[in-house]
């Protein structure tokens, strides 16, 4: 967790130190690490992430790592790789054990840190990262620690005068913190606005579904995002096979639909119910065996983290 710009700026003040732009390790090995680096780093983050001129970011996007492979595509590791569409690359495989060790160290000691920033229309935007990987969000015993990291980041942003904090991916998980409502209720006097991208995600998914589709299969159907997608589609007279074991939650969503649209919401309890449906919307992780219930030519629209890999070549996965 390092303020990269401030780190290299010390090179211009004392030109025999901090030659590297964002890799202190190489300066440490070459004995050119400026002794002020860590003090400057702590000073930079003690005020909530303000820049040297006192300007706080207008917007903070609070992200997290997806998996070990995706972590190697971070911009500060290799901008050439990060600038290209993500895919697994064979030459990065030898680095996975190193990434695993770094992941364990971050799990034990790291706190939320700044990864990148940019200015758009005179507004400063920053991306902060919770030092956790996607699989860790699935571990029940890790939930409290993750929420503590998110809460600390929100309070730091609030102290700095940040206007908006956007919770990315699993940081807004409904079962983890109610889409961020946990922190708003706990700290009712927050000045910073806590938002997430569910509305935009739903819009992207709905826009990608062809107009001629008359039936879809939906997992994660009773989540906030699943609910929004189901209610919109039934209004368009599209039959939605909603995978859920909870009849109560299904009924609650069904009651929200218009009377003439409720018949288009259908509760199913197994993936085999969608064996003739060629449009699957995935809001929950599924195994390769469960994917095999999909008929040939099925298109998967998914908003799952980490993304679901394709089980068969004749299916077409799309991650949102």
TrEMBL record:
The chain crosses the membrane at residues 90-108. Residues 216-314 form the Very-long-chain aldehyde decarbonylase CER1-like C-terminal domain. It is a multi-pass membrane protein. It comes from the Eukaryota. Keywords: Membrane, Transmembrane, Transmembrane helix. It is found in: Membrane. The keyword Ion transport does not apply. GO terms for cellular component: membrane. Its main location: membrane. Gene3D superfamilies: NAD(P)-binding Rossmann-like Domain. This is Very-long-chain aldehyde decarbonylase CER1-like C-terminal domain-containing protein. It comes from Genlisea aurea. The lineage of its organism: Eukaryota, Viridiplantae, Streptophyta, Embryophyta, Tracheophyta.
